[in-house]
Amino acid sequence: xxxxxxxxxxxxxxxxxxxxxxxxxxxxxxxxxxxxxxxxxxxxxxxxxxxxxxxxxxxxxxxxxxxxxxxxxxxxxxxxxxxxxxxxxxxxxxxxxxxxxxxxxxxxxxxxxxxxxxxxxxxxxxxxxxxxxxxxxxxxxxxxxxxxxxxxxxxxxxxxxxxxxxxxxxxxxxxxxxxxxxxxxxxxxxxxxxxxxxxxxxxxxxxxxxxxxxxxxxxxxxxxxxxxxxxxxxxxxxxxxxxxx
Length: 245
Description:
alpha+beta; four-stranded antiparallel sheet
């Protein structure tokens, strides 16, 4: 039986939710799309489900803390996707559903990872959805006065994924000098030497190094010439099942 996150839509409302995409516009536009060589970015990009904006709108902040400090231009004024609710230049999206999770499981809500926007920044919250019987909001903080920010219809404004608060409290941190860990030190030294050698070959135009372009050890899950059996190069999230909506 899979773990379950239930998205209970409010009466008469809909929600556009789907597995998060690994694609980012700035990564697509990087030279030769080199940004996608960073596997940690790719995994983070797709680590959850995104909720999309229901219609296009633009917002501008005048720099004050008042509720009226946000100026809006809505495509659909009868059903605005976001409003000014808290003041202080905070843009608030209402989630048209109650999210429920199993005991001990909370939901982390933030903006899409690694998807920066000019003049605005997503705020991140962790919600105890294992007991919640009401909705939560997704909030963004305007950072530049007198600058317009636009959310297009279908643009993701919220990304969610499950977390267990007990897990992080169960961890302890230990800081030790690397040279006290002989095996790890040996592996690190071998990696550093290999990387330096590869980079030097790139500088002088070594044909094999140039054809490879980059070393790919992490991407291929290779450490000290050993393949890591549990290495992941992507995520396969389940698609939402819509029942009665």
